[in-house]
Design brief:
With 312 residues, the protein is an alpha/beta fold. It is 44% helix and 19% strand. α4 runs parallel beside α5 and α5 crosses α11. It starts with a helix and ends with a helix.
Amino acid sequence: MLLIKPLNSLKWALHFLCSFLILTLLTACDSQEGIQQVSYNNRVDPTVTEQPAKQEAIYKFAMVKGSAEDSKAQQAFIRYLSRSSGYSFKLVSLANNSRSVEQLGNDDVQFALLSTISLTPAMAEYGVQPLAKAAPPLHQGDVQALFVVPLNSPLTKLIDIKGQSLALGDKGSLSSALIPLVTLANKNILLEELGQLSYTGSNKHCINSVLDNTADVCAVSAAFAKPYIESNQVRIIAASSYYPSNSVASNLYVEEEAQKNVLQALLQLTLVHQHLSLTNSVIPNKFLPINAKDYTPLSDAFIRLKLNQLGE
């Protein structure tokens, strides 16, 4: 009897301990309900936590479509530009400069090789930014306007134009309208000080106006005036500054760093121009930086003429 009581006490203690452990486990299970179970066998995709790689910038460069040789030179130029600038460039060949201006302004292309005749309205209408200008030797191919008079004219310098009649070419012409107007402004000669200002519609009509004495002075393209000067039909009383025949420009959406890198590549082109077989091609052999402020008077003159035309 003495042995039975301790055994019963031990049995009761074990029973109580088991009940307590079971209750504890059940409570723990209830507290874990709704907690996501993670399997350590499933690893996280490392690309989720890695910083995304920087995408390579791809720019489109527009040039006017030319001959097969021109196309070959343009492709070589684009390859050089890609290697030298650190960006990827794709050549876009277009039918004319007007199309290049439109695509540049609409961001269909980011860079373009434009004539100054096209660059001026591009700056005025789309805010296109010139980066570098072609620098041909001895200004060959550069655009310049000349003020010419008949051989027997008493006028000898540009200031003498005050009170006289001036003939220009077409209103939209760079060399026989925009550049002459900017030249007069640079010399502080106001249009109101002229006796008369007329637009003849072309270089030829402008020259004819001084030859038949219907105008005292004609402002005309230097290239067009050359044979008339050489044949002693007219003489020069003043000349404008030179403006490059071609320039590289970008639109407003190109980052400033990219513009700087492209400009640097263009400035170094002269070192490899011959090795790239670009000689005698449409690609200039030398570029110089452009100060956009030098072109602002041209774009302003274009806007003024455009507004005058709209008001007619």
